[in-house]
Design a protein that fits this description.
The chain has 350 residues and is of the alpha/beta class. It has two domains: 114 residues, Enolase-like, domain 1 (2-Layer Sandwich), CATH 3.30.390; 229 residues, Enolase-like C-terminal domain (TIM Barrel), CATH 3.20.20. The strands form three sheets. Strands 5-6-7-8-9-10-11-12 form an eight-stranded parallel β-sheet. The chain has a four-stranded antiparallel β-sheet with strand order 4-15-14-13, covered by helices on one side. Strands 1-2-3 form a three-stranded antiparallel β-sheet. α10 links the parallel β10 and β11. α2 packs antiparallel against α3. The two termini are 28 Å apart. It binds magnesium ion. The site of magnesium ion (MG) has 7 residues, from loops.
């Protein structure tokens, strides 16, 4: 089957809460949707999100790459999708999320041709999946209160807090969140995400205070700068909380490096940053080395998020699920065969 067209649509949606992390804050999400159409009329959809993590990938830059890609892939057989993706990854290695969006669209178009649905492709193991919900780093107590209550009312049990790296501010946020959760839920789990905001010193200080206060933390994502390998070695040695790397690891190559340096307990895999083929390799490598697996997302609509839902449900391999971006925007209850019954996604599959 031949690739006939690549078309593009920009989506901008207001977020229900200020999305604030140690890397920056935003009030709306912006993505570029990609549609790959084949000569028999079938198609695949993908999403190229924007994120503080990859600042080069602006809407303009994404669109430029898509225009280039369209010329490159028109009239090529969809069966070549793996080679096309490899070529794009080399050509645009500074634009991983853009290539991943194109890859998901190509992958879905390819699956249509070979007659396999995405959930089956990944193994069709789980019928449902429980996600956490992210609490942005907010200093406005009313805003924290109302977003936490939104999550509690929706039925979420696992809360992932974004921290700033400022120990005093972070302890204030943590104590507020603990207070609200203890008052209104019978049981809950807390995960933390530093988004590179800490140094080894501030991380260890925070850990110390959290221990004294008796806070129980399930895992801590990316405390230090993504390239601070010596710092990560130190905190891996002294941390009592499992360390999960996110921004440090975009590819299987980077995953192999962090494994050989022994600086983490797990890795956050996102289709939006690594695409399909690399995510698959990374899962295999992580499993072989007994790392914990988290699946995450960017600020994405269901076009992109669903790729992660199918992957996580299909493989059934993930210890921590953080696929909550859809709850930041207005959404429906059903998308194809995925039903949203927070905190779960259910797959309707015969
Ligand atoms: Mg993260």
């Amino acid at each position: 089957m031949i690739i006939k067209n690549l078309s593009v649509k920009t989506v901008i949606k207001p977020l229900k809460v200020l999305f604030s992390t140690s890397l920056g804050s935003k009030e709306e999400m912006m993505s570029v949707l990609v549609k790959i159409t084949l000569d028999n009329g079938s198609y695949g959809l993908g999403e190229c999100p924007t994120s503080f993590v990859s600042k080069l990938e602006t809407i303009e830059a994404i669109k430029e790459i898509l225009t280039y890609t369209k010329k490159q892939i028109q009239n090529k057989p969809i069966e070549d999708f793996e080679e096309i993706v490899q070529f794009l990854r080399r050509r645009f290695f500074m634009y991983p999320m853009t290539v991943s969006g194109i890859e998901v669209a190509l992958f879905r178009a390819y699956l249509n041709v070979i007659g396999i649905d995405e959930y089956t492709y990944w193994g069709a193991r789980l019928k449902n999946l429980e996600t956490d919900i992210t609490i942005p780093f907010l200093t406005d107590l009313n805003a924290i209160n109302s977003w936490l209550n939104y999550g509690i009312k929706k039925g979420f049990k696992i809360f992932k807090l974004k921290l700033s790296g400022d120990v005093i501010q972070d302890i204030l946020l943590l104590s507020k969140v603990n207070e609200i959760l203890n008052d209104s839920t019978s049981s809950h789990t807390i995960r933390l995400d530093g988004n590179q905001g800490f140094t080894e010193k501030t991380f260890l200080k925070l850990q110390d205070i959290m221990e004294k206060k008796g806070y129980i933390i399930q895992c801590f994502e990316q405390p230090l700068k993504k390239n601070d390998f010596s710092g990560m070695k130190v905190i891996k040695k002294y941390s009592h909380i499992p360390i999960i790397l996110d921004e440090t690891v975009f590819s299987s190559c980077e995953l192999n490096r962090v494994i050989s340096e022994n600086i983490c307990d797990g890795v956050n895999i996102k289709v939006a940053k690594s695409g399909i083929l690399e995510s698959k390799r990374m899962i295999e490598i992580a499993k072989r080395h007994k790392l914990k697996l988290m699946i995450g997302c960017m600020t994405e609509t269901m076009i992109g998020l669903s790729a992660g839902i199918y992957l996580a449900c299909g493989t059934g391999q993930f210890d921590f699920v953080d696929l909550d971006s859809i709850y930041y925007i207005r959404h429906k209850r059903n998308y194809g065969n995925i039903n949203l019954v927070p905190p779960f996604f259910f797959i309707n599959w015969a």
